[in-house]
Every structure is written in C-alpha cells, then in structure tokens.
Amino acid sequence: MRIALLHAFLNQKGGAENLLLWYSRYLLEKGHDVTIFTARFDYNLWVSEAKDLRIIEIPWLGDAYFLAPLAKNKLVSQLSNFDIINFHNLNLAFSIALVKKSSLDSSKLVWYCHEPHRPLYPAITDVGFEHLYSARMRVGSGLYDAYYLLEKLQKDFSNKIHKRYDQHLVKKTDLILANSNYTAGLVKRIYKKDAQVCYPGIDITKFSDKGNAKESLNCEELILTVGFLRLVKNFDTAIKAMHHVIKTHKKAKLVIVGSGPERYRLLNLIKTLHLENHVHIQRLTDQELVNYYGSSDAVLYTPIYEPFGLVPLEAMASKKPVVASNLSGPTETVQNNRTGFLVDPKDPKSAAIAICRFLEDKELSRKMGEAGRKHVEDNFTLKRSASRFEDYLVRE
C-alpha cells in the first residue's frame, strides 16, 4: 500500500521522532511504498533508518500559520494518491493543509497521537506544573525567563486559530491510535473520540547490562536520567534527589543525558546546590548512551507529564531497575515493586530513598533488572509494536 507519514519536524531526536522512523523502516521492509513528509529532516540523526526511505521536506510546513497556504498547495498535490495518510505530531501549517483539501477524502486518515497539542488544551494537559514554574523563577536566568515569555506570546497569537483546525482535523480522522491509555484518555476528554492503544516498542537487541562509563566518569555508582531538557521532564527532582543521595553515597554521580532550553537553568540549580562534582549534563551518541545504560546502577525518570516515555523501556532492556514517576505514561511500563519503584515526581527525597535502596541492595537491583528485561521482551519489542501498527493501518 502507498503510505504517507507526516511529522512537523524531524531535525532532533525524541521518542516520537524515533518511533516514526522505526515504523517507516518496518513498513518499507514489509513491502509498502512509504514516504515521509516533514518541514525539516536531519539525515545525520537516522543514517541507517533513513536508508532507501523517500523523505520530502516542505520548508513552509514549519513556519508561521500565515504561510500555511503556501505549504498546503505543495503538500496536498503530493498526498492525493496515497492509500493511507498517517500523521503524527502536527503544527498549524500541517493541520490547515489536511483540513482544507477535499481531494484527500479518499485516503484513510490515521492519527498516531503521541500527545494532544499541549498549548491548545493546558487546562487538561498541564495540571501540576505550577511548582516547576516557581522553581524556574527562583533560579533561572534572565535570558531564559525572556525566552519563555516570548514563547508564550507567540503561542497565544496562533493558538486560537490552531485549535479550530485541530478540532476539525480530528473529526475528519478515520482512526486514532494512542501511545498509551493515558494519552487515549486525553483524546477522549479533548475530542470526545475513542483511540486505540498501540504501545511503542524498542529494539532490545541494542541493549545490554554491560558498560564501562564509570571509568571515564571516575565514579563508583552511576545514576542515569535521559530526556529533552524542558520543564515537563522535571530534571529538578533528579538533581535535588542527588543532594540527598550523596550524604550516604559520596562517590555516586548522576548523569543527565540530553539537550534543550532548560540546560542553563539546570546548570544554575546544580551550582546552587553545590553538586558540580556529582551531577553532569551530557550529550551522547546512541552508542554512547547504550554504554551508559549498561554502566548504570539505576535509571531515574520523574517527568511531571509524560504520555508514554521510552527511557524506562531502554533501562529495563539494559536490565537496570527504574525509579519512575507515578504519574501518566510511566505507570503503564514500570511495574511497581517488580521492575522498579514508582515515586511522586514532586518529592526528591522519595526518589533519593528509592535510588539508595538499589545502591545498597545489589540482589534487589539484579532481580528487578532481570524482571524488567523480561517485561520488555514480552510486551514492548519494536517488532511487536510495529506489527501492531501495520495491522491497524491496513485493517479495513
């Protein structure tokens, strides 16, 4: 079948972006004619995944809403002959293009919802963020305070229009897939439509419990956390938890793997808490990240808002116990008291206590790590996830 997959931007790596490339590769290898449409694509990020894939960049799709008509004409002229149009996270320009053109009505329109567009529905999606914003104002820099203010003004300007098209597009959609029951619940509340859950998966063959990162880090105990550095990922809790951990584990280190607009604020927080020798923020290649997973004693993942989250899966595939948020997506992957501990993401001390249990009880860590690996093998492999995704797409 001719299948088009759409994503607003593919010039940085994240869970949603990775999943779209993995699914595209799987569909191509299954004999489907696959094309990816996006505003920007960075081939350096997905060298093997993008091989032989047809990728079409339409730059205006990433620009302001008043340029959407320019993108619409170019996009719909190329989408008209596809059997299936599968869109992932979309910006306003994409939404206008899909809503406006009736010639696309013969195609099956499928939305894979990684999350509803958060800025349009904050009363539903953003509950519980208040303490993060107050923390940012206490230790943030003037530059980044200005960044968030300008970002808010820009979003407020276009959100009213975007919301109208967003609602219209979802009404036209033939099938909605969600990455978790949590996300499916948000879809139901916002759009009054049902979504089928299609859990993401990972290639477990890439992960092992072996690594040598501790040598270069000069530490005896390693805690790892991974993600794009933005407020909802809540790296504040991880940093503050280390303030408690090092009281009894003085040679422990936390490595935060990621990049993003919160980097400098988080560095300020690390400095304020005098944790420069115990907490590091790094950017790693995929291969280096696998080494860090294998080297770690535990993986910490405490977002306030996370529709799904691949990090706990990668940790469990590496046979590492997980300390994860007891809110939203992680509760559907981490089995409390079996593959890790679920904690209040707003409580650094509870996170620290859970980490210390793993550092002090190696047998507990081993058992939970083994259980985590089996849990991922049974439920969250990429092959299982991609096969289910294909089945939903081609099903009549």
How would you summarize the topology of this molecule?
Blueprint lengths: L1 E5 L2 E2 L4 H15 L3 E6 L1 E2 L12 E4 L10 H12 L4 E4 L4 H9 L7 E6 L8 H4 L4 H10 L2 H31 L2 E4 L2 H11 L4 E2 L15 H5 L3 E6 L8 H11 L6 E6 L5 H10 L6 E4 L3 H10 L2 E4 L9 H7 L4 E4 L14 E4 L4 H13 L1 H18 L2 H13 L2
Parallel strand pairs: 1-3, 1-6, 2-4, 3-5, 6-7, 7-8, 8-9, 10-11, 10-13, 11-12, 13-14, 14-15
Helix pairs in contact: 1-15, 2-3, 3-6, 9-13, 12-14
Task: Characterise the protein shown here.
The protein is of the alpha/beta class. The chain folds into 2 domains: 2-145 and 160-200 and 382-394, Rossmann fold; 204-379, Glycogen Phosphorylase B (Rossmann fold, 3-Layer(aba) Sandwich). Helices cover 45% and strands 16% of the residues. The chain is built from 15 helices and 15 strands. The chain has helices at 15-29, 68-79, 92-100, 122-125, 130-139, 142-172, 181-191, 213-217, 235-245, 263-272, 286-295, 311-317, 348-360, 362-379, 382-394, and strands at 2-6, 9-10, 33-38, 40-41, 54-57, 84-87, 108-113, 175-178, 196-197, 221-226, 252-257, 279-282, 298-301, 322-325, 340-343. The strands form 3 sheets. It has a 7-stranded parallel sheet. The chain has a 6-stranded parallel sheet with strand order 12-11-10-13-14-15, sandwiched between helices. Helix 1 packs across helix 15. The relative contact order is 0.11. Mean pLDDT is 89; it is low at 133-140.
Overall number of structural domains: 2
Tell me the Rg in angstroms: 21 Å
How much of the sequence is in beta strands?
A: 15-25%
Question: Low-confidence parts lasting 5 or more residues at pLDDT below 50?
Answer: 133-140
What is the name of the CATH architecture of the largest domain? 3-Layer(aba) Sandwich
Computed structural class = alpha/beta
- Per CATH, the class of the largest domain reads Alpha Beta
The topology string of helices and strands comes to EEHEEEHEHEHHHEHEHEHEHEHEHEEHHH
Oligomeric grouping of the chains: single chain
